[in-house]
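Quick illustration for those who missed Monday's session on complexes.
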Amino acid sequence: MATETMTGAQALWAALVRESVTEVFGYPGGAILPAYDAMLQFPIHHVLVRHEQGATHMADGYARASGKVGVAIATSGPGATNMVTGIATAMLDSSPIVCITGQVGSKLIGSDAFQETDITGITLPITKHNYLVTRAEDVAPMVREAFAVARSGRPGPVLVDITKDAQTSSCEVDWAATEPHLTETMDDELPGDGTAADAVALINEAERPLIFAGHGVMLSGAEREIVALAEKGRIPIAMTLLGIGGVPAAHPLNLGMMGMHGEAWVNTAIQEADLLIALGMRFDDRVTGNLRTYALKAKKIHVDIDRAELNKNVRVDVGIAKDLRAAIAEWLPKLAPNPRNEWHARISELKGDSAVRDIQNLPDNGHLYAAHVINDLWRLTDGNAVVVTDVGQHQMWEAQYYKHDSPRSLITSGGLGTMGFALPAAIGAKMARPDAEVWVVVGDGGFQMTMCELATAVQEGLDINVCIINNGYLGMVRQWQEFFYEKRYAATPISGPDFVKLADAFGVQAKMVDRRCDVDSAVTAARGHRGMSLIDFRVEQEDSVYPMVPAGADLHKMIRRPSPHPIVETAAD
Ligand SMILES: Cc1cc2nc3c(=O)[nH]c(=O)nc-3n(C[C@H](O)[C@H](O)[C@H](O)COP(=O)(O)OP(=O)(O)OC[C@H]3O[C@@H](n4cnc5c(N)ncnc54)[C@H](O)[C@@H]3O)c2cc1C
Ligand SMILES: Cc1ncc(C[n+]2csc(CCOP(=O)(O)OP(=O)(O)O)c2C)c(N)n1
Ligand SMILES: [Mg+2]
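Prediction with thiamine diphosphate bound:
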């Protein structure tokens, strides 16, 4: 048995190297200092963040852009608690990250020692699993198991809290013995579970089926299979926000996004469908609206790797707890081709007959709308950029007006809706995919939450373009106040610094744009600049995102854009 003698701190980095980690995002402090000291001996690049929340979002963006596990590191106490928002963000969106925190010495635990917090207790409900490591010999096996847990089955965040004495003590590491062995329970069928034959039978007899493409399409790598399924049965596809990119926007069977700010015809089609084939999505309330009136005419098939998702929000006729790619592959040979002409004719009718969201050709009326900016961005980047959004109106406009044709090209916080996510997540995405053109689309509110990470991006010499959709409001909340609180704008008007001067202070090239005719040249200049650039787009302040299903309302009862309006929302308006 070949063993190596090393400290717990060295075992940590050696384990990360074995897990093929090449970069980590972190911030040092007393309780993690032994680990930082040992780091210098290992071929891992450390990105010094400006706030530990940023480290977790960077790890998350790294994971979402690449499919690999992202790693964030912090010290105990405030360092660890600063990670909480990022961990919860990763948890809600099934993103695999491993967070390493330093902890006070094992003998001091429970004594309110300096910078002691019970971070495993705090993060218990927002991690897939977490570990408190108090002995050097446990560091390597637990770190390796953390990676296995983070990436297996339904991915998610894992935290490993390592006491200072576990980092400084010596141990013998037998690498073969550190190999993780997780128990797989996925294949154990439960009574009531559906089979592939049940699913195929429902699909073959359906006249008005709809496929729901969720985030699980990308997490399972089922992009080809889902298109094959759709094409064989000529079944239209609707996407969740996190499913965007899993099926090319340009595919003729792809109808667009469903839900609160989804396409009107998609939501109506859901209410008229006779079968929903839900693939790797979890029927979030932003997707379903009122459950009592949701898709009442439809039978439902649901495939999800996490059995707990089946029958959680929506009762289904066939529930299959399985990896999506494997599930669809089983169905494909048994599917009967079917043109479903009547269903397609009905959907075309719902769409109307003019080009959808064709806003390019509208005359310039002197106003700059966020929709124009996003649409121009899409056109000028040939739809090939990796766009990382923040949370709010701009996020929804991005989903509506940037047409994503490739997987992992939209990175956004869906489940937790974390403002401040975009810039740090984009840094992670760019580190994971250095050759990708990365754009941040962020509101003036959310940008101010984590804009300190501009310094991180500059220190790393990154080339990321930041597009601030600056409407002078916490726009999405203002919109709710406009619709549901009689325009009482409590605490939503927000000022900001001069973003161009701010960028300049960070060493970031920047420009302000407030006319539609200047969007093109500003985007082109940012794309041509090597290094960080920022554009402050001063957009129409009180524009709203349409359509909108009010929270808890029936899915088909959408608030539509008042007409006439300079932006064409959909042909059906
Ligand atoms: C302001 C705002 C507005 C929003 N509006 C909308 C909206 O209009 N429409 C909309 O769709 N969303 C909207 N969202 C996002 C919404 O809250 C959810 O985050 C989103 O709908 C979740 O999409 P999902 O279920 O596909 O992904 P996730 O929540 O990531 O779920 C993925 C599912 O796939 C499963 N899975 C993982 N791996 C596999 C595998 N290998 N095989 C099979 N299954 C797997 C997981 O277990 C999980 O159940 C909004 C968010 C915000 C912040
Ligand atoms: C951390 C956090 N705090 C509060 C919210 C609630 N919230 C959702 S959208 C939004 C407004 C976002 O404003 P801005 O960043 O300017 O984007 P806009 O909606 O104007 O495009 C707020 C406050 C949130 N999602 N996240
Ligand atoms: Mg705003």
